């Protein structure tokens, strides 16, 4: 019978087992720490990229709002005044082309504001967890909240303007106004424009019932007042909040 001799295996001491365990533990722990460090570096880089992009979007929005406040709204308000003055004349005879021009340039909607959502939508999708500066989070939230109020005012302005468009049927030909609107918009994107020569000689103002015309003129005055006293002031406050938000972000992330 063959006898098998098993090799002698030296038994490890507790100290050796402990050292092996410690080395494995340290290797796993250091790997975990290294991975966390890589993620933190990546998140920090993303955070800065997002902030820089948000700042760019907000500066674009600020420029748009400033243009609406000091250029677009005063421009339309001036033409609304012209339309009101023309319609209040004792006789509208011979003023057809001037009334159509003032109607189009006073009421054609070109100053509604919609924020640039490019970066914010991405940030909302990934989560605000990337923005670690609480002051920055608060500032961005304040701007988003302000826009909710803005939307309410804008919706009211749109309702007033739509009512004016419908009510204009008492004296204006809707096919003529639609055609003239397209002509005016073709000269966008700066300010809509419509020359008297753009209004065809065939464009005539219908004789409206004095009471209906008076009610329409009243709507024009309410709308014009709302643009200056509400929408324009709302946009000014938007710029104020936006400027504060920009200052907070630029200071927190040293992007000036």
Concise structural overview:
The protein has six helices and no strands. The chain has 256 residues and is mainly alpha-helical. It has one domain (14-252).
Radius of gyration: 33 Å
Q: Runs with pLDDT <50, length 5+?
A: none
Largest sheet: none
Residues in helix, %: over 70%
How many separate helices? 6
Termini Cα gap: 91 Å
Query: What is the succession of H and E elements?
Result: HHHHHH
The assigned structural class equals mainly alpha
Number of domains: 1
- What is the assembly state of the chains in this entry? single chain
Strand proportion, as a percent range, falls in under 5%
Instruction: Please tally the β strands and state the result.
Output: 0
Envelope shape: rod-shaped
The mean pLDDT is 83
């Amino acid at each position: 019978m063959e006898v098998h001799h098993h090799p002698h295996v030296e038994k490890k001491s507790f100290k050796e087992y402990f050292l092996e365990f410690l080395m494995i533990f340290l290797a796993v722990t250091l790997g975990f720490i290294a991975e966390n460090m890589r993620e933190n570096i990546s998140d920090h880089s993303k955070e800065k990229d997002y902030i820089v992009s948000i700042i760019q979007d907000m500066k674009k929005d600020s420029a748009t709002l400033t243009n609406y406040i000091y250029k677009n709204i005063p421009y339309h308000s001036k033409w609304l005044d012209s339309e009101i003055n023309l319609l209040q004349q004792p006789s509208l005879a011979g003023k057809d082309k001037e009334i159509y021009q003032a109607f189009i340039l006073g009421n054609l909607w070109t100053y509604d504001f919609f924020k640039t959502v490019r970066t914010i939508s991405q940030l909302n999708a990934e989560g605000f967890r990337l923005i670690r500066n609480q002051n920055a989070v608060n500032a961005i939230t304040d701007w988003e909240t302000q826009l909710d109020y803005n939307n309410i005012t804008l919706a009211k302005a749109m309702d007033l303007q739509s009512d004016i468009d419908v009510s204009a049927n008492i004296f204006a030909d809707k096919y003529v106004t639609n055609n003239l609107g397209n002509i005016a918009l073709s000269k966008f994107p700066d300010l809509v424009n419509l020359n008297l020569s753009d209004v065809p000689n065939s464009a005539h103002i219908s004789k409206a019932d004095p009471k209906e015309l008076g009610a329409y003129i009243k709507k024009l005055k309410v709308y014009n007042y709302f643009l200056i006293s509400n929408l324009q002031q709302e946009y000014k406050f938007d710029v104020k909040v936006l400027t504060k938000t920009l200052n907070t972000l630029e200071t927190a992330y040293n992007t000036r």
